[in-house]
Structures are given as structure tokens and as C-alpha cells.
Amino acid sequence: MSAAALPSWNDGVARAAILDFVARVTQEGGVDFVPPAQRIATFDNDGTLWCEQPQQVQFYFARQRLEALVEKDPGLKTRQPFQAYLEHDMAAIKDLGKKGLFEVAVAVHAGMTEDAFANYARGWLAKTKHPKLGRLFKELVYRPQLELLEYLRTNGFKTFIVSGGGIDLIRAFAEEVYGIPPEQVIGSSVRLHFEMQDGRGVLMKEAELNSFDDREVKPANIGLHIGRRPIFAFGNSDGDLAMLRYVRTGEGPRLALLLHHDDAAREFAYDREFRFSPLAEALDKADEYGITLVSMQRDWKRVFDD
Amino acid sequence: MSAAALPSWNDGVARAAILDFVARVTQEGGVDFVPPAQRIATFDNDGTLWCEQPQQVQFYFARQRLEALVEKDPGLKTRQPFQAYLEHDMAAIKDLGKKGLFEVAVAVHAGMTEDAFANYARGWLAKTKHPKLGRLFKELVYRPQLELLEYLRTNGFKTFIVSGGGIDLIRAFAEEVYGIPPEQVIGSSVRLHFEMQDGRGVLMKEAELNSFDDREVKPANIGLHIGRRPIFAFGNSDGDLAMLRYVRTGEGPRLALLLHHDDAAREFAYDREFRFSPLAEALDKADEYGITLVSMQRDWKRVFDD
């Protein structure tokens, strides 16, 4: 089985670590056996499961919606943080940070019902292409990771996403693309409130942040949503480090992986300087923290589906 | 199959409604067919799945912990809301309400790690008996509901708890007793923060409320945790009404059920006057809202396991 598993992964340290880990935790009677109910695996999304360059998809999603809103309310053009996004002022956007990006997304989607947002997001994802790679965003998911998700599930794991991106945007495609149902998606979120509208109960999105699911908040949200420590985690930036260390420092067998984007030819090469989610501390301390580095260039036979 | 299903339920309107609903949503090619991924069922816990009289279990749990803390810090004896609980001052406790009860639980468990809390709760549930019925709290679950949970899962449903009780206390027994894993438990919660302690990542419980999962907050938390509208819900008080209406007013086949505790002989009889979770509006408007009433006395052949 191992020979056929993960066909888009090259033989090497990372693939071997995955195969060895899964073999150990599924070996009944073995010293490292983990019952299926405890086989929880958590994945970051942006840059771990799909492409986040040159901008995170959330950026394009919010900006397109923002442009539509400006036609109705031209005053937004001179109001921050909207102005920075409308004018593509990258210095200002960098200053606003990943949280600022999410706050724009919050503002432009406030007042929609959850159902309306989901329809809007699905429609957007069904037609919107990456500006440089020319393919639908939802096709720019990493083939080796799709295989890994499936491989883990085949071995009794329950797979979750734990992302700094908006929880609803991810839920709009995660089931179709990753095989991960909405209830296994954790992400940044706005407050919701329930109300009756014309006899129908609806959830309204408010303009207020509920949770910005980054860094130390990721393990805290794992506690809230999952309620037990995962045994496997995969990330690609310092924003994932707390989650990786939370998972890695539990008792028993553990595997924490970190994707290094070092493949300018097939995707992008970036780490310390990426504006929203730099990879620096996690790269420098991976050994010390027991985190296994995955090199896109070296460890992946291919990146996207052809 | 139907003849053997739900053996602890008497033939009647409620049992027939459940069997009919499940038959319709699982009938492939039928007009009411619902794909398995969308078969989400949510249950309240206190008074719906287990006994909440004469006090909710949360009450006994927090009070025992409070008494232990008083030995270390006698000053708590004269500080509210602790004093009311220590002196069994029922008038003051009623004024504090269900949220006050939860806030006492918050205060007495702050500063514990999630792991330590889970161990403490499991130990407490393994030994603590109901003061009147003389059995372990975790044995005072309703046999007809255990059958219903299992029946739904057998028919492809995913079963969730959505409770005003503390999420961690429920997670400490829900898998063993209800077959519901921690990630399918939603409840009231405190804020958690992640930190490293002696090289180990832990989640610490703070003294601050994150969510009091009652009334309109229940559907909002369903939106956050599950991300799609359930098609089936079961409650027993006005605290569940928003959830029941949210579920009932979605498109397609829907079933919302409400347990009426009208059985003083086998359990307890109460509705409008129950101090923490009265059943009044939901009882008066069940017909108007399309909610099916379940009478404990009439619809259940037995209540607890012998």
C-alpha cells in the first residue's frame, strides 16, 4: 500500500515521515496505536492547501465585493482601510497586515445572511481566476495535499482546516474540493446574530470580529471547536507555529509538518518577506521544535493538477 | 425496520413523526431526499438528553468545586455570587439565573488547563450521584433519546449537542454515553489562551466568558461550529426555541421536537416555573411554529435504564 500512497510525493524524509507515522498510529496492538476517534489532523489553508500568491484569495474576494459597493457608495473611495485596497497601495496594505485584510472582508460582508453569503461565495469561486496563473482559484489546490488528505482519511483520520482566512469563504468550496465538510472548517469569523425575517429564521453577519484565527488563536480555536489535541498538523508560516507546537508537544505519537515555498519555477518562492504570513521563526526553529520541513521543490513531484 | 426502531417509544404522534421524517429524507429518488452530508441533527442536553432536576448537573459540579476552593480561600463565603451557592439560597440563585450559574462555573475553573479540567470532570462524573435518584449523573440519561441518537446515526445523520451547559463538562462524557465525539459538542464556553509551559503547549481556561450558548445564541453557534442549517432539532425549553425555529424554517423537510416533562411518577413534572429553563412560549406556540410536542408520560415506554 505504501508504494502506491502519495504518488505526487517524491521519496524523501517528508514522505517517509508521513508513511511511518500513519503506519505506527494505525498498527493495532502496537505501542503507538491511536484509536480512530483520536486521529485528528489539522491543516492550515492559505499556502498549505492552496496558492496564496501574489495575494491571499481573501484579498481578491474582498476587493471585488468592495468595488461593487463603491458603485453604490462612492464615499468609500477616500475612507481607510478601503482606500488602500481600492488603490492597490501595497505599502498601506502591508501596514494593515493580515488582520487588516480580514477586517476589510468583515466590513464588506456585514448585513448579509449566512445563506446569501454562501451563495455569493460559491458563485464567485465558480468563475474567478487567478490573475497570474489563469486558472480558477479553486483549482489552484496542491495535488500532493489532496492525496495526503485522502490518505489520512483512508487511515481513519478526521481532517480539519484551521485557517486565518474567513470561515465562510472556505466552507463554500472545502467540501467539493478537499472533501472536508463545513463542520470541520475553523477560520476567522464575524459575530452572527439570529433573527426572524418574514417567518424565516436567519443568521445575519455583523460588522464585528468574532475571532481572528491566527497564531496563538489557532490552538485556542481548536480547543473550542474540536475539544481534543490533534495528533497531526500541517502549516506553512509563523501563523501556524502555535498550532504546530500544540500538536507536537502532546503525549504519544505526533507529526507536525511545515511547507516551504521554495519553487519559483512551478509555483512561487517566498518565506521571510511575505507580507501577510512570513515564515521565519518556524523555519529557523523547525529542528528544535521537532517540526518536519517539506520542500515544495524537492518533496513534490507535481504541484497542481495539469 | 420501523417496527423494531425506537423500542422505548410508545406508538403515537411523536414516534410516527420521527419514523416518517427519517423515511422521507433517506428515500433515494424521493422528493424529500436529503444527502447524508446534510443530515445534521442537533440536541439540547440538560432536560433533553439527561435529567436536569432538581438542579442542572452544572450546579452540583460547580458547587463541589466551590466548596473545595473555600477551604483554601474562606473569603469566598461572603462574596456573591459564591455565597448564594454555598448557602443554598434558592431565591438569590434564581435571581442569578442560568447565566449566573454558568458564571460561577467559569470562576471556579479559571486557571486550569483544558487537560486538567477534562481529567477533573471525568473523575467527578465517574463517582458523583444524583442526590435524589441515587444514581450516577451520567446514568440519568434518557433511554428513548439514546435510541433516537443511534437511530438517526444508523440513517446517516451526524448528531450534535447544542447546550447552555459548559462545553467541557459535556465533552467529558458525551462520547462514552451518547456516542457523540467532542468536536460535535457545542456549549457555553470560556475564553482559552495558548501558552508554552515547560516546553509543552497548553490551553488555559480564563475567567472570561466566551459564549453563553442559550436562546438566540444557539443558532448563532450552530452557524459558527457547523456552518449549515440542521434538518432536525430536539429541545425542552424556551432556551431551545430559537434553535428549533431556525431548524424548522429552513427549506425542505424539517423536524423540530420539544420534550415536555409531565411525568412526576417516573421523572419530574415541570414547565413554566422551572427556575433556569422555563418552558412557556415554546409550549404555547408549538403548533404555530410547527414544533412537535413529546410527552414524557405518554410517548416514552420507559425513561431511564433499569
UniProtKB/TrEMBL annotation, chains A, B:
Q: Which UniProt keywords apply?
A: Hydrolase
- Report the GO molecular function annotations: hydrolase activity
Stored InterPro entries: HAD-like_sf, HAD_sf
> Which Pfam family is one of those matched by this entry?
HAD
Question: Highest taxon of the source?
Answer: Bacteria
Is rRNA processing among the key words of this record?
A: no
Q: Where are the transmembrane segments?
A: none
What's the protein here called?
Answer: Haloacid dehalogenase-like hydrolase
Q: Identify the species of origin.
A: Sphingomonas cavernae
Query: Which classification does the entry list for the species?
Result: Bacteria, Pseudomonadati, Pseudomonadota, Alphaproteobacteria, Sphingomonadales
